[in-house]
Specification:
Helix content is about 35%, strand content about 25%. The chain is an alpha+beta fold and about 450 residues long. A hairpin with a 2-residue loop joins β4 and β5 (about 105-115).
């Protein structure tokens, strides 16, 4: 295939510049090159297209400031503002590769307009707009993925990698590398980013990666991965991965490093905001003392229960006021926390356990038959009655439990009232017992 044909299909501007800054060749399409055609670049000095306030700075990248001699080298990536053909300005990300060929010296320069790729400002806008963390991550992944002139960077964002439901965001989920990263994350394998510092990106060679990712990366021609880790309280909350096929051209230096730092910082803001919002939601739903669900969550869940059968256990501690009066409220609080832990030890993770009053608890069991529910309530009563820690003061405490069970058409209010009345019957019958509603 004709190289010119390939270059004409790259969504970038490619210039060949001699050692004096004159543009000798250009491969441009107006939509990707500030409105200019290839012919309008050739023969002119490259600095002419740069806004006046940046011209000296750009010249110093390619010419030794002291000796005035061209430096044919690989300068770090940078960005430049170009005056468009219509008089407006446009910002480009620039990569330059120096060459010496026969009697010619100069640079091959690739320029990609920020108008043609997601920018950090667009990522910032998703944060300003209060978009969900997943949308911010998608914007970061898009910004972290790009390719031109033989250089490719494949960006990935991993959210909550150690949680029950980790989330992997990529711009091309169908590629082998995407599948490999997803498998690694779902296996809770954090070897890639485990030792990465918080915030500042680092780079490691593909050869050192876990086998499944290494094989996929090598298949796609990637030689290294750059890692930005975001942690809260030393727990990894998000990771940005840049797989690169050229360490020299896409290394962690200059403009490339600045862009990566900016993306990590922006994602950090979104992660911290999401974490704070989650803490507020948790605080609004949990009892501050015991960590159980609070009354509001209990009422909401009970009214929305969707099950063929449900059992409600209404638990009221016996003579709890005497503990507060005799030992003080701080001991009473310790007893409530201990009872909450014992309820958790008996119930299943899917059961709702709530503190609905001072010394009142409720347990909602769904899709559980009456006999099984009765067994749970007896184990619960026994667990509450086990001796308390010696440091508490009181040796033990008991509870009265009311059990109400419904099958078929459920009436939440009737279920609650039945369990409450059964508990009160237990109190009148002598406490420390389970009473089943009629």
């Amino acid at each position: 295939m004709d190289p010119a044909f390939v270059l004409n299909h790259i969504r970038s501007l490619v210039l060949v510049i001699d050692e004096f800054g004159t543009i000798r060749e250009a491969y441009a399409k107006p939509e990707y090159s500030a409105g200019y055609t290839s012919e309008q670049f050739v023969g002119r000095n490259a600095v002419e297209f740069v806004v006046p306030e940046q011209q000296i700075k750009i010249t110093e990248i390619f010419v030794d400031a002291g000796a005035g001699i061209p430096v044919i080298a690989q300068p770090p990536n940078f960005h430049v503002t170009i005056t468009r053909i219509d008089g407006e300005v446009e910002v480009f990300d620039v990569m330059a590769s120096g060459f010496e060929h026969e009697d010619e010296k100069g640079w091959v320069i690739t320029m990609t307009s920020r108008n043609d790729q997601p920018t950090p400002h667009e990522v910032l806008q998703t944060i300003v707009d209060g978009r969900p963390l997943e949308e911010v991550a998608a914007a970061v992944a898009a910004r972290a993925t790009w390719s031109f002139a033989g250089l490719e960077v494949a960006g990935y964002v991993v959210l909550h990698p150690k949680s029950e439901y980790p989330h992997v965001v990529s711009t091309n989920p169908g590629r082998p590398l995407s599948a490999a990263v997803r498998v690694l994350v779902e296996a809770r394998n954090d070897r890639i980013w485990r030792d990465a510092p918080h915030g500042d990106p680092i780079e490691i060679a593909v050869a050192t990666l876990p086998e499944i990712v290494r094989a996929a990366a090598e298949l796609e021609g990637m030689v290294a991965v750059q890692i930005g880790r975001i942690a809260i309280n030393n727990e990894t909350e998000a990771v940005v991965l840049w797989f690169v096929n050229d360490r020299e051209q896409s290394g962690l230096r200059g403009n490339g490093l600045s862009i990566r730092r900016n993306l990590v910082q922006l994602l950090t803001v979104a992660v911290e905001r999401n974490h704070a919002a989650q803490q507020l939601r948790t605080a609004a739903e949990l009892d501050a003392l015991t960590g159980l669900a609070n009354r509001a969550v209990f009422d909401r869940t009970l009214n929305a229960v969707d099950s063929e059968q449900a059992t409600l256990l209404f638990v009221d501690l016996d003579h709890f006021k005497d503990i507060n009066d005799t030992y003080g409220h701080h001991v009473g609080d310790q007893v409530l926390i201990e009872v909450a832990d014992r309820l958790r030890s008996v119930c299943r993770p899917i059961d709702l356990i709530a503190r609905i009053g001072g010394d009142e608890f409720a347990v909602l069991l769904t899709n559980t038959d009456r006999g099984t529910a009765l067994g749970v309530s007896k184990r619960l009563l026994s667990a509450i009655g086990d001796p308390l820690p010696a440091s508490f003061g009181p040796e033990r405490i008991s509870a009265s439990v009311g059990l109400a069970h419904q099958f078929g058409a459920l009436d939440p209010q009737e279920l609650l009232e039945s369990a409450d009345q059964a508990m009160l019957s237990g109190k009148r019958a002598g406490r420390d017992r389970v009473v089943v509603a009629a």
